[in-house]
Amino acid sequence: MATAFVSRFARQLPVRLLVLVLLVIVVYPLVWLLLGSFKTQDEFLNGSTWALPQHWQFSNYSDAWTTGNLSTYVRNSVLTVGPALAFIVLFGVAAGFALEVMVWKGRNAVLLTFLLGIMVPGQMILLPLFTSYFQLGLTGTLWPLIITYTAIGLPLTVFMMATYFRAIPREIFEAAVLDGASMLRAFFSIGFPMARNAVFTVALVQFFFLWNDLLIALTFTNTSDLRTIQVGLLNFTGEFGQTEYGPLFAAICINVFGCLALYLFLNQKVMKGLAGGAVKG
Amino acid sequence: MNTWSRGRRARTVLKVTGVSAAALLALTACGGSGGGGSSSGGGDPQEFSFLINAENTTIPDELTTLSKDQCKAENKDLPLKIETVPQTQLDQKLQLLAGQDALPVSFAAGNTPALTETLDKDGQLLDFEKTFTDLGVIDQISPAAISTIKSLYGGKFNVLPYQYNIEGFWYNKKIFADNGLEVPQTYDDLVSDAAALDEAGVQPFSASGEQGWPLTRLISGYLSRELGPDAMQRIKDGDAKLTDPEYVDAAQKIADLGDKGYFGKGLGSIDYDTAINTFLKGDAGILYMGSWVLGSFADESLNKIGSDNIGFFPFPNVEGGAGSSEQLPANVGLPMAFSAKQYNKKVGAWLKCIAENYGQASLEDQNSISGFVPATTPELDPLTKLVQDTVDKTTESTLWFEALFGSKATTVSQTNAAPLVSGDQSPEDFMKKVQDAQGSK
Amino acid sequence: MDRVLGDKKTILMLLGPALLVYTLVMLVPVLISLGYTFFEGNAITGFSFVGLDNITRLFHDPDVRHALWFTLKYAVILTTLQVALGYGMAILYVFALKRGSGVVRTLLFFPVVLPTVAVALLFQKFFEIAPQTGPVNAILNSLGFASVDWFGDAGHAFVVLILMDLWRSAGFYAVLLYAGLVDIPEEMLEAARLEGAGTLQLIRHIVVPLSMPVLLSSLVFSINGTLKVFDSVVALTNGGPGSETTPLTLYMFQTSFSYGEYGYGASIALMLTVLCLLFTIFVFRSSRRDVTES
After folding, report:
1. Which of A129, A273, B191, C15 has its CA 20 to 30 A from that of B165?
2. Which of C286, C280, C276 minimizes the C-alpha distance to C71?
3. What interhelical angle do C262-292 and C53-60 show, nearest 10?
4. Mean pLDDT of successive 10-residue segments in chain A (281 residues)?
5. Which of A42, A135, A241 lies nearest to residue B57, judging by beta carbons?
6. Which superfamily does CATH assign the domain made up of C2-292 to?
7. What domain range includes position A121?
8. Same domain flag for A34 and A154
9. Nearest neighbour of C14 by CB, restricted to A27, A147, A187
């Protein structure tokens, strides 16, 4: 009995060690980040990189929050990413449904067109879009961001949802239609709820892409009132004259651990969603 | 030109922001949902919108102070509105805005003089020579500043001298005294001083290889001493090539310093802050930098060696060379221009107020020397006085290495400077790369 | 039935919004930008027609060649590594940790959400040589090796870049691939085990073939991301030392916006798009059977 336990433990040992190493590699930098957010400028420039902060500089956080204007940036990020995400999910899932469940000529071509969108470098659409938004009078609002985010998020979402619906037998929807529902109804009452886990996963992936976006946000935000959190984070360096590492790290920590909290909160669902085969090819 | 302002990359990914909301809103609002933006730029701004690189905090601070005091009336008519953009994204922003004729009332006009010239050719920049004459305040600008601007920006006075900087070597007096060193008179002296410091276990030079320009400026410094102050002008005019032996030789000279390890380790990843900090901690004997660095010197939490322990000497003479150490590299900081298309009477009132008050105010508040003539000279701290005196003594200004290059050659030069000095790239290759980039422009 | 499934109005209502937004905001601007391929100049100076000059220039520009080579090297190496590592981690989750993998998965997924700027700063500090010796060099020193200037030459900078992006993305691919693996029926594995298959054989003959579709999706996704690498390079090395770590995207960005040659920049972007297309088609070709027949 005891030997069995020992041999089992010994067999498990390499795996456990491996997991431990992986965890340390991932978690340690986060601890470093957190510790850094309490350091003074002097400790940053002259102290050892991995030393503990000597005097815990909590004022870094208040500096970050007030001088760094983080509250405004967070609000802007929420106001752009939120609606964009809603549009992406609604439009993307519907399109995925239309492309895989519905039967019509040319759907493969359309799917391929969407797929092309994954390949286009984002830098390419900046100049034409800037001009258009300007002439439409949208500059100076958050709309350019919301619209661009929606468009950028669509290809992957459509692609992933299409592959998801491909795996679902059409008979399910046919049955609903035989019961007298329209296809549109079948989509909203059966298709969409059925894909809920997949939708959730796609939404999560998109959320992090959009939340961390810089390129688009940088190009289309033209006043400090419109900055998103990532842009604000970068501007930090300048607003303090020289790089004030403490407040910068504090700002990053607020962002990162905010995301972490949100992520942990939603985590259960995500993993279930992914496990539910959202991205099956 | 990416100079004084810290962090050309500043560890920041892409960054853009800024632009005057005002100008855009003014333009777009009047057009409603129609083609408001297609108008030709208006010329009736509602705000004194000012787009500046985020790294520069001096000018916005000073203008804000003025708007509450001397320029209160002007500010009431046309409220100051500052927007910032990270310097790395400034050029992109300017292109996008200029393409829509949507430049704000005032703006930082690009990272290279070449872009400033492009904007000027497109008729975007206000000609200050004429404007200040009309406003009757042209004598508020120092002639030296105007001549520096003209030599940099295509012979025109179209950017403001909010700063007037000279460049040279700052040295740690105590370290020099401890090692029995004198201020070098010739380039050979400089090299032997460096060797003595190295021998004594002190890093001779502190420089930011990440920025690149602190290194290439040594090349142009050497060139202007060896070949005369017009060394870089000749490249622009096509009378000489960077690949000519005497030019390659200058690069070789600076690469030699690196070869001996005089810049310390990891040169390519030393950023602006670190370079300054190394010097201010007393870990390096010499720092090549412009006079904008006085701001950092005055920060007591950074400056561990004390301001009275810092001395200045110009790039020393090269024996038998055509130039002299009386000629100093000078610049006016990142160029700050005014939009020709947004100019009106209210903007003029602001400009007049700036011309009359900025010089005095920036000396008093920031200890920073500008090209605006101060009404009275306030009491200066010793280092500022030293710079002011040096400026007064300077007979002729020289240009920094990339001053007359196009954007591409500037980037190539600054990004390849660290490999050159750390020995990963030969001087021939370096100069050829830069020359090719300049030629393809 | 076909009539209902092929109802034009329904299709339009479902597909319309997505297609409209996508066309207006992505396709049209891309086409406009492609149009600039035939022009020279920028938004300030205006554009002038130069025909195919930009395209021919692509083939003679040593910078393009260099950036292309770097992009390919980076994309192939990183895609291989991140999918392989992700796959390994996914196998670990499913077969070694089983039910208890939730917490580990969550923690390892986490680097995905960190802002690039923060991660780059972190890696710069870790691989620092001066003025302080970073942890990596400290370890090297304690093992008796000399410090390495990690950002001083192309080879080392490339290694750090790959490590950083691997760190950022492995957990993401692990979760993505995990989804494919958990669906493998337990009975199949059990049956194979009873027939005496070892773990490696099990993986090779059952796990890999059955997870092929999701593996290929991950590959497509990964290669399209790595070919377009931008943020991490800019934040970590800014393309340096020199232009040694400059990918096509960064060169395109500089050309368009810093050097003011928008037309030529668009040509570089075109080249990049074609590259992505080729890689995707390549992956799909080899996957087509597996994917569509499911």
Report:
1. B191
2. C276
3. 80
4. 62 80 84 83 70 77 76 86 93 88 84 84 83 84 92 88 80 80 82 79 80 81 78 59 70 80 69 48 34
5. A241
6. MetI-like (1.10.3720.10)
7. 72-275
8. no
9. A187
